Amino acid sequence: ERARADALSLIVEGTPDAIVIVDADVRVQRFNKALTDLLGCGSEIMGRYFSEFVCESDEAIVRKCVGECFLNGHSDNIEINMIGREGREVPVLANTTLLRDVRGNPEKILWVVTDVTVLREAERRLKEAMETKSAFTSMVSHELRTPLMVIKESINFLSEGFSGNATEEQIDFFEMCKRNIDRLSRLINNVLDFQKLASGVKS
Questions:
Q1: Is the full-model pTM beyond 0.90?
Q2: Do the Cβ atoms of 95 and 112 come closer than 8 Å?
């Protein structure tokens, strides 16, 4: 029993992630310095329910996670928001492991909590950048479509002799212009189709 306690102490204090150990009632029994640094808490959290340090909207997730842990011995990669000092929300990725006593009976749950604040901020900035790019692409593509159609129709009028009979050389030039306009139109359509696929919108 002493060896098991020493091994657990090494795990709790040696990992860089925040660790919380709760009893069968999900009350805090132990935690490491990483949790103190993460939430700004101290000894005042001892004996309190773990759910008190989780956003109210995520309490149901925590209950489900605890149930899975007692049933399967663990639960993995649970995304929740914990509450730090002064009500600051901290997004974390939580994993649990069921701890058993020497007789093999469920005794405690070990929570390993990883701060994903930086990751979530990077995801937010990436999403904003993608949305900005998408809006810019859409705007430019649609703004090009209208003048291209006008230019193409104007060339059609000229090639059909509406402003006087065109020479053979002029007609060849008009046909080349129309081919280039059609090529550019297809390129614009391809850009718009790719944008729809990237955003999950079916045409």
A1: no
A2: yes
